Automatic annotation (TrEMBL):
Pfam families: TauD (PF02668). GO terms for molecular function: 2-oxoglutarate-dependent dioxygenase activity; metal ion binding. Signal peptide: none annotated. Keywords: Dioxygenase, Iron, Metal-binding, Oxidoreductase. Belongs to the TfdA dioxygenase family. Residues 11-277 form the TauD/TfdA-like domain. The lineage of its organism: Bacteria, Bacillati, Actinomycetota, Actinomycetes, Micrococcales. It comes from the Bacteria. One of its GO terms (cellular component) is cytoplasm. This is TauD/TfdA family dioxygenase.
Length: 308
């Protein structure tokens, strides 16, 4: 355990490459600037932070905490439900959807969120963990020759993806969620290797929304194989932390350089986490070129922010 004395952060690493638990920090109310800075520095280092007893019990408190890191997005570019009391809150609810596909939040728009917060609301009696993978550690452990290839690649991301095609649809609510998710089409081209604007790290920026690599002379079949190779490397167990949810927990993760996955091992018992995300910048490649939109305007969902 290490302690940052100026801000009294008590940090315990959860794995070599990703994850740390923060104990003894109440996240409610306006946080001092030095505390916010310390949290940001810890996030840059560990990519995913688990606040064991955050003190946050309401959507309003979660909103205030997330807003320390930048302007908030609305809940989602396409998904809205009547039960959403706060426009910034997306209920990740087992009764309407499951997220058991490896993904980075909302990469089908030109400026995906920079960070995401998840708060435990309703937990199943067992299971329902969240896995989070470090895409920078995955890149670093690639052979140099594959790194060089990946540095040059671009991939098209779309919300019309396997994320909303579960093997079974168990309820009308699930069907409505899927229909809402693709009610407006988004297609965006991102670099396969994104440079993190704060740390300078290179990370594999793919996930389930990445549909195919855009490279002249590569067939759809070969494109699928390229993505499969890189994606399987991101989610190697060495690059992953497993968050076992407990009451009172809040998780903050860097959406610029991680992927996550909700484990479907709880017999579809009630499971609900509330998600609030912070608006992000436009990704840039190793060569400094920005992502670009092909179809879809997400300005109603998120402003484009400068690096923060």
């Amino acid at each position: 355990m290490t302690t940052t004395t100026t801000t009294r952060l008590q940090t315990t690493k959860l794995g070599e490459h990703i994850g740390a638990r923060i104990d003894g920090l109440d996240l409610t109310g306006n946080l001092p600037g030095e505390t916010v800075l310390a949290i940001r520095e810890a996030l840059n280092e560990h990519k995913a932070l688990v606040f064991s007893q955050s003190g946050i019990e309401t959507d309003e408190q979660q909103e205030l905490f997330a807003s320390h890191f930048g302007p908030l997005t609305t809940a989602h570019p396409t998904v809205t439900f009547e039960e959403q009391v706060k426009k910034t809150v997306l209920p990740v609810d087992s009764e309407q959807s499951i997220a058991n596909q490896w993904h980075t939040d909302v990469t089908f728009i030109v400026n995906p969120p920079q960070v995401s917060t998840l708060r435990a609301v309703t937990l199943p009696p067992y299971g329902g963990e969240t896995l989070i993978a470090n895409a920078a550690a995955a890149y670093r452990s690639l052979p140099k020759e594959i790194q060089a290839l990946a540095d040059t690649l671009w991939a098209e991301h779309s919300n019309d993806s396997d994320y909303v095609r579960p093997r079974t649809v168990n309820s009308e609510r699930e069907k409505k969620y899927q229909e809402a998710f693709v009610s407006e089409k988004y297609r965006t081209v991102h670099p396969v290797v994104r440079v993190h604007p704060l740390t300078g790290e290179k990370g594999l920026f793919i996930g389930t929304f990445a549909r195919h690599v855009k490279i002249v002379g590569v067939s759809p079949y070969e494109s699928t194989d390229l993505l499969r190779l890189l994606q399987s490397h991101v989610t190697r167990p060495e690059h992953v932390v497993r968050v076992t949810w407990e009451p009172g927990q809040l998780v903050l993760f860097d959406n610029r350089i991680t992927q996550h996955y909700a484990v479907d091992n709880y017999s579809r018992a009630p499971r609900k986490l509330n998600r609030i995300t912070v608006a992000g910048d436009i990704p840039r490649s190793v060569a400094g070129k920005p992502s670009y939109s092909v179809i879809g305007d997400a300005s109603h969902y998120s402003p484009i922010v400068e690096v923060d």
